[in-house]
Specification:
Blueprint (H helix, E strand, L loop, with lengths): L4 E3 L5 H8 L3 H7 L1 E5 L1 H9 L4 E6 L1 H4 L3 H14 L4 E5 L1 H7 L8 E6 L5 H11 L2 E6 L4 H13 L5 E4 L8 H7 L8 E4 L1 H11 L2 E5 L16 E6 L7 H6 L1 E3 L13 H17 L3
Helix pairs in contact: 3-5, 8-9, 8-12
Protein backbone atom coordinates (compact mmCIF):
# COMPACT_ATOMS: atom_id res chain seq x y z
CA UNK A 1 0.00 0.00 0.00
CA UNK A 2 1.38 3.40 -1.00
CA UNK A 3 2.23 5.61 1.98
CA UNK A 4 0.48 8.98 2.34
CA UNK A 5 1.09 12.23 4.19
CA UNK A 6 -1.47 14.47 5.88
CA UNK A 7 -1.96 18.18 5.22
CA UNK A 8 -3.93 20.62 7.34
CA UNK A 9 -2.59 24.09 6.48
CA UNK A 10 -4.16 26.38 3.89
CA UNK A 11 -0.72 27.96 3.48
CA UNK A 12 0.90 24.73 2.31
CA UNK A 13 2.71 25.36 -1.03
CA UNK A 14 1.13 22.29 -2.62
CA UNK A 15 -2.34 23.54 -1.74
CA UNK A 16 -1.55 26.99 -3.12
CA UNK A 17 -0.28 25.46 -6.36
CA UNK A 18 -3.52 23.60 -6.92
CA UNK A 19 -5.57 26.74 -6.27
CA UNK A 20 -3.45 28.69 -8.77
CA UNK A 21 -4.04 26.03 -11.41
CA UNK A 22 -7.60 27.30 -11.74
CA UNK A 23 -6.08 30.08 -13.85
CA UNK A 24 -5.09 29.46 -17.44
CA UNK A 25 -1.79 31.33 -17.16
CA UNK A 26 -0.63 29.09 -14.33
CA UNK A 27 -1.68 25.95 -16.20
CA UNK A 28 0.34 27.17 -19.16
CA UNK A 29 3.41 28.03 -17.10
CA UNK A 30 3.48 24.84 -15.06
CA UNK A 31 2.31 22.40 -17.73
CA UNK A 32 -0.07 20.92 -15.17
CA UNK A 33 -3.80 20.85 -14.55
CA UNK A 34 -6.26 19.66 -11.92
CA UNK A 35 -8.75 16.81 -12.23
CA UNK A 36 -11.60 16.28 -9.77
CA UNK A 37 -13.61 13.17 -8.84
CA UNK A 38 -12.67 9.50 -8.85
CA UNK A 39 -14.30 9.01 -12.24
CA UNK A 40 -12.31 11.71 -14.01
CA UNK A 41 -9.03 10.88 -12.28
CA UNK A 42 -9.49 7.25 -13.32
CA UNK A 43 -10.09 8.33 -16.90
CA UNK A 44 -6.95 10.48 -16.86
CA UNK A 45 -4.95 7.53 -15.56
CA UNK A 46 -6.48 5.21 -18.16
CA UNK A 47 -5.43 7.69 -20.85
CA UNK A 48 -1.85 7.25 -19.70
CA UNK A 49 -1.39 10.69 -18.18
CA UNK A 50 1.31 11.14 -15.56
CA UNK A 51 0.12 11.94 -12.04
CA UNK A 52 2.10 14.39 -9.94
CA UNK A 53 -0.02 14.40 -6.77
CA UNK A 54 -3.43 13.50 -5.42
CA UNK A 55 -5.20 14.85 -2.35
CA UNK A 56 -8.34 13.53 -0.75
CA UNK A 57 -10.57 14.02 2.26
CA UNK A 58 -11.56 10.66 3.66
CA UNK A 59 -14.71 12.08 5.25
CA UNK A 60 -16.09 13.12 1.85
CA UNK A 61 -15.21 10.01 -0.14
CA UNK A 62 -17.98 7.73 1.07
CA UNK A 63 -17.94 4.48 -0.87
CA UNK A 64 -15.12 5.71 -3.12
CA UNK A 65 -12.41 5.29 -0.48
CA UNK A 66 -11.23 1.94 -1.88
CA UNK A 67 -11.09 3.40 -5.39
CA UNK A 68 -8.93 6.28 -4.19
CA UNK A 69 -6.52 3.90 -2.47
CA UNK A 70 -6.30 1.82 -5.64
CA UNK A 71 -5.52 4.94 -7.72
CA UNK A 72 -2.98 6.06 -5.13
CA UNK A 73 -1.16 2.72 -5.38
CA UNK A 74 -1.22 2.75 -9.19
CA UNK A 75 0.04 6.31 -9.35
CA UNK A 76 2.91 5.49 -7.03
CA UNK A 77 3.92 2.60 -9.25
CA UNK A 78 3.78 4.78 -12.34
CA UNK A 79 5.76 7.75 -11.09
CA UNK A 80 8.50 7.98 -8.47
CA UNK A 81 7.74 11.70 -8.06
CA UNK A 82 4.08 11.11 -7.26
CA UNK A 83 2.83 11.95 -3.77
CA UNK A 84 -0.51 11.20 -2.12
CA UNK A 85 -1.98 13.28 0.70
CA UNK A 86 -4.97 13.10 2.96
CA UNK A 87 -6.35 16.56 3.73
CA UNK A 88 -9.03 18.23 5.79
CA UNK A 89 -12.47 19.06 4.40
CA UNK A 90 -11.57 22.75 4.51
CA UNK A 91 -8.57 22.11 2.29
CA UNK A 92 -10.40 20.03 -0.27
CA UNK A 93 -13.09 22.71 -0.53
CA UNK A 94 -10.36 25.29 -1.02
CA UNK A 95 -8.70 23.34 -3.81
CA UNK A 96 -11.78 22.00 -5.60
CA UNK A 97 -13.37 23.93 -8.46
CA UNK A 98 -16.78 22.40 -7.87
CA UNK A 99 -19.07 23.91 -5.28
CA UNK A 100 -19.80 20.48 -3.81
CA UNK A 101 -16.54 18.54 -4.22
CA UNK A 102 -16.46 14.76 -4.30
CA UNK A 103 -13.51 14.64 -1.94
CA UNK A 104 -10.51 14.13 -4.21
CA UNK A 105 -8.37 16.19 -6.60
CA UNK A 106 -5.44 15.11 -8.72
CA UNK A 107 -2.66 17.09 -10.39
CA UNK A 108 -1.54 15.80 -13.78
CA UNK A 109 1.06 16.72 -16.33
CA UNK A 110 -0.50 18.11 -19.50
CA UNK A 111 -0.16 15.88 -22.55
CA UNK A 112 1.54 17.50 -25.53
CA UNK A 113 0.27 17.04 -29.06
CA UNK A 114 1.47 18.29 -32.41
CA UNK A 115 -0.65 19.97 -35.06
CA UNK A 116 1.54 18.32 -37.68
CA UNK A 117 0.78 14.89 -36.23
CA UNK A 118 -2.97 15.55 -36.19
CA UNK A 119 -3.05 16.76 -39.79
CA UNK A 120 -0.72 13.95 -40.82
CA UNK A 121 -3.14 11.40 -39.42
CA UNK A 122 -6.06 13.07 -41.20
CA UNK A 123 -4.21 12.79 -44.51
CA UNK A 124 -2.80 9.32 -43.95
CA UNK A 125 -6.07 7.76 -42.80
CA UNK A 126 -8.42 9.82 -44.93
CA UNK A 127 -9.85 10.93 -41.61
CA UNK A 128 -11.19 14.14 -40.19
CA UNK A 129 -10.58 16.77 -37.57
CA UNK A 130 -12.91 19.24 -35.96
CA UNK A 131 -11.88 22.90 -36.03
CA UNK A 132 -13.38 25.17 -33.36
CA UNK A 133 -12.92 28.83 -34.29
CA UNK A 134 -13.08 31.48 -31.58
CA UNK A 135 -15.08 29.36 -29.14
CA UNK A 136 -15.33 31.26 -25.85
CA UNK A 137 -17.57 29.04 -23.73
CA UNK A 138 -15.71 26.22 -21.95
CA UNK A 139 -18.82 24.05 -21.92
CA UNK A 140 -19.11 24.27 -25.70
CA UNK A 141 -15.46 23.44 -26.26
CA UNK A 142 -15.66 20.47 -23.91
CA UNK A 143 -18.81 19.15 -25.57
CA UNK A 144 -17.15 19.52 -28.98
CA UNK A 145 -14.15 17.53 -27.78
CA UNK A 146 -16.46 14.83 -26.48
CA UNK A 147 -18.27 14.56 -29.83
CA UNK A 148 -15.01 14.62 -31.80
CA UNK A 149 -13.61 11.78 -29.72
CA UNK A 150 -16.82 9.78 -30.01
CA UNK A 151 -16.81 10.20 -33.79
CA UNK A 152 -13.22 8.99 -34.08
CA UNK A 153 -11.78 12.33 -35.19
CA UNK A 154 -8.00 12.62 -35.37
CA UNK A 155 -8.15 15.65 -33.13
CA UNK A 156 -9.70 18.96 -32.20
CA UNK A 157 -8.02 22.06 -33.61
CA UNK A 158 -8.75 25.20 -31.61
CA UNK A 159 -8.36 28.23 -33.88
CA UNK A 160 -7.90 31.64 -32.30
CA UNK A 161 -8.69 30.02 -28.96
CA UNK A 162 -9.76 31.90 -25.87
CA UNK A 163 -10.08 29.00 -23.42
CA UNK A 164 -7.71 26.05 -23.06
CA UNK A 165 -8.72 22.41 -23.06
CA UNK A 166 -7.66 21.93 -19.42
CA UNK A 167 -10.09 24.49 -18.06
CA UNK A 168 -12.07 22.63 -15.36
CA UNK A 169 -15.37 23.25 -17.17
CA UNK A 170 -13.92 21.98 -20.46
CA UNK A 171 -12.77 18.80 -18.72
CA UNK A 172 -16.18 18.30 -17.15
CA UNK A 173 -18.13 18.92 -20.37
CA UNK A 174 -15.81 16.62 -22.32
CA UNK A 175 -16.29 13.85 -19.72
CA UNK A 176 -12.54 13.37 -19.86
CA UNK A 177 -12.25 13.17 -23.66
CA UNK A 178 -9.52 15.83 -23.57
CA UNK A 179 -7.27 13.36 -21.74
CA UNK A 180 -6.84 11.26 -24.87
CA UNK A 181 -8.14 13.29 -27.84
CA UNK A 182 -5.34 15.39 -29.34
CA UNK A 183 -6.28 19.05 -28.87
CA UNK A 184 -4.01 21.51 -30.67
CA UNK A 185 -4.17 25.22 -31.38
CA UNK A 186 -3.29 27.70 -34.08
CA UNK A 187 -4.17 30.98 -35.71
CA UNK A 188 -6.56 31.25 -38.64
CA UNK A 189 -3.92 32.78 -40.91
CA UNK A 190 -1.63 29.82 -40.29
CA UNK A 191 -4.18 27.02 -40.31
CA UNK A 192 -5.88 27.70 -43.63
CA UNK A 193 -2.65 27.44 -45.71
CA UNK A 194 -1.73 24.26 -43.83
CA UNK A 195 -5.05 22.62 -44.67
CA UNK A 196 -4.68 23.68 -48.29
CA UNK A 197 -1.10 22.39 -48.56
CA UNK A 198 -2.09 19.04 -47.06
CA UNK A 199 -5.06 18.64 -49.41
CA UNK A 200 -7.55 18.60 -46.54
CA UNK A 201 -11.07 19.50 -47.59
CA UNK A 202 -12.36 22.40 -45.51
CA UNK A 203 -16.10 22.43 -44.87
CA UNK A 204 -17.59 25.42 -43.08
CA UNK A 205 -20.81 25.25 -41.08
CA UNK A 206 -22.97 28.25 -42.00
CA UNK A 207 -26.72 28.59 -41.40
CA UNK A 208 -27.19 30.58 -44.63
CA UNK A 209 -25.38 28.07 -46.87
CA UNK A 210 -27.29 26.60 -49.79
CA UNK A 211 -25.83 23.08 -49.66
CA UNK A 212 -27.21 20.69 -47.03
CA UNK A 213 -24.74 18.68 -44.99
CA UNK A 214 -26.66 15.60 -46.17
CA UNK A 215 -25.86 16.43 -49.79
CA UNK A 216 -22.23 17.46 -49.26
CA UNK A 217 -19.33 15.04 -49.63
CA UNK A 218 -17.86 14.58 -46.15
CA UNK A 219 -15.55 11.70 -47.01
CA UNK A 220 -11.79 11.77 -47.41
CA UNK A 221 -9.38 14.04 -45.52
CA UNK A 222 -11.70 16.56 -43.92
CA UNK A 223 -11.67 19.57 -41.59
CA UNK A 224 -15.10 20.46 -40.19
CA UNK A 225 -15.03 24.16 -39.33
CA UNK A 226 -17.38 25.46 -36.62
CA UNK A 227 -17.50 29.11 -35.57
CA UNK A 228 -18.68 30.79 -32.41
CA UNK A 229 -22.40 31.30 -31.88
CA UNK A 230 -22.06 35.06 -31.45
CA UNK A 231 -19.83 35.91 -34.39
CA UNK A 232 -19.97 32.89 -36.68
CA UNK A 233 -17.08 32.39 -39.08
CA UNK A 234 -14.93 35.20 -40.39
CA UNK A 235 -14.88 35.86 -44.13
CA UNK A 236 -11.41 34.28 -44.31
CA UNK A 237 -12.84 30.89 -43.36
CA UNK A 238 -15.96 31.41 -45.49
CA UNK A 239 -13.87 32.02 -48.58
CA UNK A 240 -11.46 29.16 -47.92
CA UNK A 241 -14.01 26.45 -47.16
CA UNK A 242 -17.08 24.89 -48.74
CA UNK A 243 -20.17 26.18 -46.90
CA UNK A 244 -22.78 23.68 -45.75
CA UNK A 245 -25.83 23.97 -43.54
CA UNK A 246 -27.81 21.73 -41.22
CA UNK A 247 -31.43 22.01 -42.41
CA UNK A 248 -33.83 23.15 -39.69
CA UNK A 249 -37.25 21.48 -39.78
CA UNK A 250 -38.91 24.13 -37.64
CA UNK A 251 -38.87 27.73 -38.87
CA UNK A 252 -38.82 29.01 -35.30
CA UNK A 253 -35.23 27.71 -35.01
CA UNK A 254 -32.62 29.06 -37.41
CA UNK A 255 -29.54 27.22 -36.12
CA UNK A 256 -28.04 24.91 -33.49
CA UNK A 257 -25.49 25.88 -30.89
CA UNK A 258 -21.86 25.24 -31.75
CA UNK A 259 -21.44 21.94 -29.93
CA UNK A 260 -24.72 20.51 -31.22
CA UNK A 261 -23.85 21.51 -34.79
CA UNK A 262 -20.45 19.88 -34.42
CA UNK A 263 -22.02 16.62 -33.25
CA UNK A 264 -24.47 16.52 -36.16
CA UNK A 265 -21.78 17.16 -38.77
CA UNK A 266 -19.27 14.76 -37.24
CA UNK A 267 -21.71 11.88 -37.25
CA UNK A 268 -23.03 12.72 -40.71
CA UNK A 269 -19.41 12.34 -41.83
CA UNK A 270 -19.18 9.05 -39.91
CA UNK A 271 -22.34 7.82 -41.63
CA UNK A 272 -21.07 8.72 -45.09
CA UNK A 273 -17.75 6.98 -44.48
CA UNK A 274 -19.44 3.76 -43.49
CA UNK A 275 -20.81 3.47 -47.01
CA UNK A 276 -17.57 4.27 -48.82
CA UNK A 277 -15.78 1.15 -50.08
Amino acid sequence: MRSVNHLTSLDNPRVKEIVRLREQRHRRRSGRFVVESVRQITRAMDAGLTPAAMMWCEGLLGGAADDVQRINDQAGQRSKEYRGFTVTEALIRKMAYRENPQGVVGVFEQPTWSLADVLGQVVQDGGMCLVAVGIEKPGNLGAMARSAAAAGAAGLVVADGVVDCFNPNVIRASTGAVFSLPVVGGLTEDLIPLFQEQGINMVTAMPQAEVSCYDADLTGPLALIIGSEDCGLASTWQQAGKPITIPMLNEAVDSLNASAAAAVLLFEAVGQRRHVK
